[in-house]
Design brief:
The complex is a heterodimer of chains A (about 90) and B (about 140). By secondary structure, chain A is an all-alpha fold. Chain A is built from three helices and no strands. In chain A, helix 1 (about 1-20) runs antiparallel to helix 2 (about 25-45) and helix 2 (about 25-45) runs antiparallel to helix 3 (about 50-75). The chains are: A mainly alpha (about 90), B mainly alpha (about 140). The interface between A and B is large, with 35 and 42 residues. Chain B: GO terms for molecular function: monoatomic ion transmembrane transporter activity.
Chain lengths: ~90, ~140
């Protein structure tokens, strides 16, 4: 039964990673990326590594999207607000 | 063969696989709903896995996700400027989560483990009731 769960999780991780690679818009990409993080946390749990899954959850579900979205907003605002040119 | 792990596998295939598909091809509003739904569905999977593997400490994962999932959804809602109203998320939170937590409570019996399970269930349902209520104003 464990093997079935691990297989399902691996397939979901591979599919989510492929989807993340094929997106060009950073905003949509970050949403797929957070889903990938969730699937990775599930996979880590199924292979009995809950500590890794815990850190993956904490980083992947809130911190990484926040940093990507802040960066996207900063870049879209243009070089006007920054002191040096890009 | 373990019934808890079987339930987790069913939830993965029937719940999270369609969420992944929606996330891959949907428009931004639909994607936000899918992102919300993914955290609602992953929490019961973690709880079922904890019971299936016989490791009660794995429920911490569900606790962390119950707190961070709605927060992540609100981060996206803040940047997209929209938090769509979603009956799917609300319905899932009020059906799948109690349907998972109540049998687990019955198995755990009265005590700290049961209290923890109930706290997790209430957190998931409350958090996603908030994020699925929907405000079409800018956040």
């Amino acid at each position: 039964m464990d093997e079935v769960l691990i297989a399902i999780a691996v397939v979901l991780v591979a599919a989510a990673a492929t989807a993340a690679v094929f997106h060009r818009d950073p905003l949509r990409q970050s949403m797929v990326l957070s889903l990938l993080g969730l699937f990775l946390a599930l996979l880590y749990t199924f292979v009995q590594a809950p500590d890794v899954a815990l850190s993956q959850l904490a980083v992947g579900s809130a911190v990484t999207p926040l940093m990507i979205l802040l960066t996207v907003r900063k870049v879209k605002r243009g070089p006007r607000s920054g002191s040096e040119d890009r | 063969m373990n019934g808890w792990l079987l339930a987790a596998a069913v939830l993965l295939v029937a719940g999270l696989a369609p969420v992944l598909w929606t996330m891959a091809v949907g428009e931004p509003r639909t994607r936000l709903v899918a992102q919300n739904l993914s955290t609602v569905l992953a929490c019961p999977v973690f709880l079922l896995a904890a019971q299936g593997f016989g490791r009660p400490s794995y429920t911490d994962l569900a606790l962390v996700l119950a707190m961070l999932g709605p927060a992540g959804t609100l981060v996206y809602a803040r940047f997209l400027g929209v938090l769509p109203r979603s009956r799917v998320v609300l319905g899932t939170a009020w059906t799948v989560v109690p349907a998972t937590v109540l049998p687990l409570c019955v198995v755990a019996g009265p005590g700290r483990a049961m209290a923890k399970l109930l706290v997790i269930g209430v957190l998931v349902v409350a958090g996603n009731t908030v994020t699925s209520a929907g405000t079409d104003r800018h956040g």
